[in-house]
Design a protein that fits this description.
Blueprint: H1 2-16, E1 25-31, E2 44-48, E3 54-55, E4 62-64, E5 70-71, E6 76-78, E7 100-102, E8 113-114, E9 123-126, E10 133-135, E11 144-145, E12 147-149, E13 164-172
Antiparallel strand pairs: 1-2, 1-4, 1-13, 2-3, 3-11, 4-5, 6-7, 8-9, 9-13, 10-12, 10-13
Length: 174
């Protein structure tokens, strides 16, 4: 009985698993969802532009690098650029800087993005199983807004009041 249960469970996971292709070039769509189990690309509310900011429709093309980080036409992208706004609305956000792509920056291991086998779609994660991101406001057609990594802990378990929790979807173009 126990063996049959494990075989059944294994078969369930095997059929649910979808090959994830986070490679080549693609666009990063911003998905309005708080559940990677239920999220899908049709929930896109915008994308990331070449600077790494959240835009309604000015979608940049990014290239996945060997370091697992990505670069736009401007340069490599990171959450560690202290010239960018910190997420000071978040209890833990004093050193959480907005995602930013800049020329002359050498990406490192902390800039890597990845996906998880078994997701229905190629959602991008960062850090220690952090597959969600934080935006303070949604952009309009002529503005962009910063995107931060979603940071939580015992003092704050969700995004700050007034913010939106989102996901990133890799829309592979080649």
């Amino acid at each position: 009985m126990k063996c049959t249960s494990y075989i059944t469970l294994g078969a369930l996971f095997a059929t649910a698993a979808v090959a994830q292709d986070f490679s080549g070039t693609g666009q990063i769509f911003v998905i309005n969802s708080t559940s990677f189990a239920d999220a899908n690309p049709s929930q896109s509310i915008g994308c990331l532009d070449a600077t790494g900011a959240f835009s309604v429709d000015n979608c940049a093309t990014f290239t996945k690098l060997k370091t697992a980080s990505v670069a736009s036409e401007i340069g490599n992208c990171t959450f560690t650029d202290s010239s960018q706004p910190a997420n000071t609305d978040n209890v833990y956000g004093a050193n959480s800087y907005a995602w930013h792509c800049l020329g002359g920056y050498s990406a490192n291991i902390y800039d890597g993005l990845y996906t998880v086998n078994g997701f229905k779609y190629t959602f991008l994660c960062h850090g220690d199983t952090d597959c969600y991101y934080d935006v303070k406001q949604l952009p309009s057609s002529d503005t962009t807004t910063p995107v931060w990594s979603f940071i939580w802990g015992s003092r704050q378990t969700s995004v700050p009041a007034g913010h939106t929790q989102v996901m990133w979807y890799w829309n592979k173009t080649s």
